[in-house]
């Protein structure tokens, strides 16, 4: 059952409050609401919340819906920062508007486009979607970080999980691009790899951020 944006905003706040901040329930008065508020009534009718006086808890369906809304919001933030280069001060307000158009299916396409990011730009975990689970199962032992490769192991650059512009620019300047063949030469004291007939050395943080599609024997 589809619910309004106001109702989605409430269960998003509740999901974070209960699941991430580890509270048993949320006092609706802290949101300026009561049991007569239209959005609260909507969530009650949709059986997304359970009320005890002014304290609300999420039903099983409400918990699932709240998780989905949080996932969409944080994917929207990731998209705005990583792809659209949105300035920090505009990210939260823009993401609030943008996430409402990321319906099921579209949000998975965005997640795939971004390489199944694990955190939003503010460091908060992005709940996994079905696409993330499927990708992990399909790519297990096939795609790994450069730091996880064995000495002499080869593959092709798959994607980056790098959030700092300077580090990303450094990688691009070195020619570290998706699809380029790479071979790990050593992993201590730094990670040394061959790329396009040139040898480079990077620290573990950067090696952790470069993902390689491992060449099968």
Give a description of the structure.
There is one protein chain. The chain has 217 residues and is α+β, with helices and mostly antiparallel strands. It has two domains: 1-140, Winged helix-like DNA-binding domain superfamily/Winged helix DNA-binding domain (Arc Repressor Mutant, subunit A, Orthogonal Bundle), CATH 1.10.10; 143-214, Ferrous iron transport protein A (FeoA) (SH3 type barrels, Roll), CATH 2.30.30.90. It is 42% helix and 19% strand. The protein contains eight helices and nine strands. The protein has helices at residues 5-20, 38-45, 60-82, 88-98, 106-113, 130-139, 165-174, 204-209; strands spanning 26-27, 49-52, 55-58, 143-145, 154-160, 181-186, 191-195, 198-202, 210-214. The strands form two sheets. It has a six-stranded antiparallel sheet with strand order 4-9-5-6-7-8.
């Amino acid at each position: 059952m589809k619910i309004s944006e106001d109702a989605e905003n409430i269960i998003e706040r509740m999901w974070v409050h209960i699941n991430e901040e580890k509270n048993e329930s949320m006092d609706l008065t802290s949101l300026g609401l009561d049991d007569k508020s239209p959005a609260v009534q909507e969530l009650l009718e949709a059986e997304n919340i359970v009320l005890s006086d002014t304290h609300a808890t999420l039903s099983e369906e409400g918990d699932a819906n709240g998780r989905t809304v949080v996932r969409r919001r944080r994917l929207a933030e990731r998209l705005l920062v990583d792809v659209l280069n949105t300035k920090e001060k505009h990210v939260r307000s823009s993401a609030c508007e943008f996430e409402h158009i990321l319906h099921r299916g579209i949000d998975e396409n965005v997640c795939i486009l971004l390489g199944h990011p694990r955190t939003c730009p503010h460091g908060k975990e992005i709940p996994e979607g079905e696409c993330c689970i499927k990708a992990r199962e399909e790519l297990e032992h096939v795609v790994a970080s450069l730091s996880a490769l064995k000495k002499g192991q080869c593959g092709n650059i798959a994607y980056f999980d790098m959030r700092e512009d300077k580090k990303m620019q450094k990688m691009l300047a070195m020619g570290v691009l998706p699809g380029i063949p790479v071979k790990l030469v050593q992993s201590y004291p730094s990670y040394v790899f061959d790329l396009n007939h040139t040898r480079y050395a990077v620290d573990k943080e950067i090696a952790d951020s470069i993902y390689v599609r491992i060449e099968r024997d």
